[in-house]
Design brief:
alpha/beta; Nucleotidyltransferase, domain 5; DNA polymerase, domain 1; 3 domains; 6-stranded mixed beta sheet; 18 helices; about 55% helix; flat
Length: about 375
């Protein structure tokens, strides 16, 4: 089993987990503890569709690197069962995307989540990124040189593996510190409610959008054949990127697409000389590209603009609620958006709750309703009475 160099004094070197037997041993060892730190690495900057490439796990003294690319779903199932066991706390940081990736790649729904980013936000910490928290709370400086590294490459260098392992080695200590602060503030219950809500996130596939090209910067100014060319080039680039499993910008960058649509080359020689295309792309795909820019199919029609109807009364009420929310948040030294994002204010204006229980249905959280009820419910009652 390969090892990487130790990245923190007193911690054992993380161990690679690459086989079904090693997964079973890992789960047996983790079955003896009630709390683990978990992080994931994917390769979204380097492929068309990101994959789960690595799972880092620590119990505070030992660390493991699970090579998810080397393991098939049956081999990973015991680990999935551990993640789904609410009896073992899973400490993660900013877990939203990781939870969606686990749902998509492994069919796993994490239970017993304890998110340190949420904890920091509910403590009123303004800089709640992991690197900032570790440095400010524990005096630990993370090496962030590899933030956009390709974790799908194998073999992985010892340096990159150590970098990945460092993200979980201090998470349990960080959670201890933040939990104590939340306890002093009387906000542990808020945090647990937020973590339980975060557990509900799921992966949702984005449906194909034939008008995606129109959201590119500069696309709205194109008309006629230029717009047709951009739509055709965009669709071609997406298909090539999917076939080659590379990010679309590695096929042709957006600026090049726009210039090809605006100033189409006259022939293959001009295409090869076109800035952003080059001889390699022209040699491999020149004939396809020339066909697209010479006789592009008609682009999808623009969607009719929906008339914006401003509900002045609702907007005025949202502004009034925002003032009340901001006063509550300021008294607690919290970001107002944590207390109630705009969607919550809109829901309150829509429902006009007349009790704390009704307000909870609008806010989606018991703790939020408890904070806001004294200020918001009387206002909503007055609005109802005046309508």
């Amino acid at each position: 089993m390969g090892e990487v160099g130790s990245v923190v004094a007193g911690a054992t070197s993380p161990r690679w987990v690459r086989s079904q037997a090693e997964v079973a041993r890992l789960c047996e060892e983790l079955g003896r503890v009630r709390r683990v730190a978990v992080d994931l690495e994917s390769n979204g900057f380097h492929v068309y569709r990101a994959r789960l490439c690595l799972m880092q796990i620590s119990d505070g003294t030992r660390g493991w690197l699970v090579d998810t690319l080397a393991l098939d779903p049956p081999a990973l199932r015991p680990l999935g069962e551990l993640l789904e066991d609410a009896g073992t706390e899973k400490v993660m940081h900013g877990a939203d995307y990781d939870l969606r990736m686990l749902d998509r790649e492994m069919g796993v729904t994490v239970r017993g989540l304890r998110d340190t980013q949420l904890a920091a936000q509910l403590c009123g910490v303004p800089a709640f990124g992991l690197a900032s928290l570790l440095e400010n709370e524990l005096g630990v400086t993370l090496d962030k040189r590899f933030q956009r590294a390709d974790f799908g490459l194998r073999p992985m260098s010892a340096e990159l593996a150590a970098y990945a392992a460092a993200d979980v080695l201090h998470l349990l200590e960080l959670e201890d510190r933040l939990r104590r602060r939340l306890d002093d503030l009387g906000r542990v219950g808020w945090w647990l409610e937020e973590c339980a809500a975060l557990e509900q996130v799921r992966w949702e596939e984005t449906p194909p959008d034939p008008l995606a090209f129109a959201r590119m910067r500069g696309a709205s100014a194109l008309r006629g054949a230029a717009r047709d060319r951009l739509a055709a080039l965009w669709a071609w680039r997406e298909a090539r990127a999917a076939a080659e499993d590379v990010p679309p910008f590695r096929v042709l960058n957006p600026e090049t697409l726009l210039r090809l649509a605006e100033q189409p080359p006259a022939d293959l020689a001009a295409l090869a000389a076109f800035r952003g295309v080059g001889r390699g792309v022209s040699r491999r795909h020149g004939r396809e590209l020339m066909e697209l820019v010479t006789a592009p199919p008609a682009a999808p029609e623009r969607r009719p603009a929906q008339p914006f109807v401003r509900d002045r009364e609702s907007e005025d009420r949202i502004k009034e609620l925002r003032v009340l929310r901001d006063e509550v948040a300021a008294g607690l030294a919290l970001d107002p958006v944590i207390v109630a994002p705009r969607a919550v204010l809109e829901a309150v204006v829509e429902a006009l709750p007349v009790s704390q229980e009704d307000l909870e249905g609008c806010t989606g959280r018991r703790w939020r309703a408890g904070l806001l009820a004294a200020a918001v419910v009387p206002v909503c009652r007055a609005w109802r009475a005046g309508s």
